[in-house]
């Protein structure tokens, strides 16, 4: 029991430090975060307390109001902190991958499945909506990356719908802060077993490509590749 109490006491300061750090980071982008949280807490507590006086139970409803005020402040703080984080990540390489990693357990994400020399990149997410290819980078250059990746998906999992999204602030692009909600709004057309099967096929293809033996060193002079490839016996 003593060990559990010590572990709990050690964990609490860590949580408090994390909350304080998150608040400081949020306040850099959202200067009014303190006033907003205070207003939310006072408004909720004031409503409950007023109702308590009206019905003759100010103590009980005051306690309930305090608890609901803390809950309301936590919800507002979480949303504004997320918005501030997205604002700071906007335009940074790999920002879309960070959002996909936190989209939820129903999605399996694989970052950087395709990339070019200009560091334009395509990430892949698999869920009940099918396969979603998320590109970030120059909108003109990522078109070829998306086309090549969609062609590859058509060969591997032809029966699974493939969606493509380009993260950015331009026309026909998805802002980073709306990427998660946009993906969650996609129609669900696959069952759980179908999602698992799709992930297995993609994983097997990835393992096959990574384990494919490649010749080391330069090709000997005068040596040519046989026409038509190896014959099956």
Automatic annotation (TrEMBL):
Ranges that cross the membrane: 33-53, 59-78
Region described as Disordered: 209-233
Keywords of the record: Membrane, Transmembrane, Transmembrane helix
Biased composition annotated in UniProt, kind: Low complexity: 219-233
Name the UniProt record assigns to this protein: Membrane protein
């Amino acid at each position: 029991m003593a060990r559990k109490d010590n572990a709990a006491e050690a964990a609490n300061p860590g949580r408090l430090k994390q909350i304080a750090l998150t608040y400081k980071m949020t306040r850099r982008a959202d200067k009014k975060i303190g006033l907003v949280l205070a207003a939310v807490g006072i408004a909720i507590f004031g409503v409950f307390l007023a109702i308590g006086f009206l019905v003759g139970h100010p103590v009980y409803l005051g306690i309930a109001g305090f608890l609901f005020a803390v809950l309301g402040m936590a919800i507002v703080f979480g949303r504004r902190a997320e918005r501030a984080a997205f604002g700071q990540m906007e335009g940074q390489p790999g920002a879309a991958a960070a959002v996909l990693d936190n989209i939820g357990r129903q999605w399996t994400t694989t970052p950087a499945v395709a990339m070019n020399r200009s560091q334009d990149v395509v990430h892949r997410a698999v869920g009940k909506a099918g396969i979603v290819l998320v590109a970030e980078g120059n909108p003109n250059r990522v078109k070829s990356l998306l086309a090549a990746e969609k062609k590859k998906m058509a060969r591997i999992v032809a029966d699974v719908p493939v969606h493509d999204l380009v993260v950015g602030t331009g026309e026909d692009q998805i802002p980073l802060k709306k990427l998660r909600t946009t993906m969650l709004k996609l129609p669900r057309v696959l069952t759980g077993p179908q999602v698992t099967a799709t992930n297995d096929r993609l994983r097997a293809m990835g393992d096959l490509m990574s384990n494919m033996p490649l010749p080391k060193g330069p090709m000997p002079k005068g040596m040519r590749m046989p026409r038509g490839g190896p014959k099956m016996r």
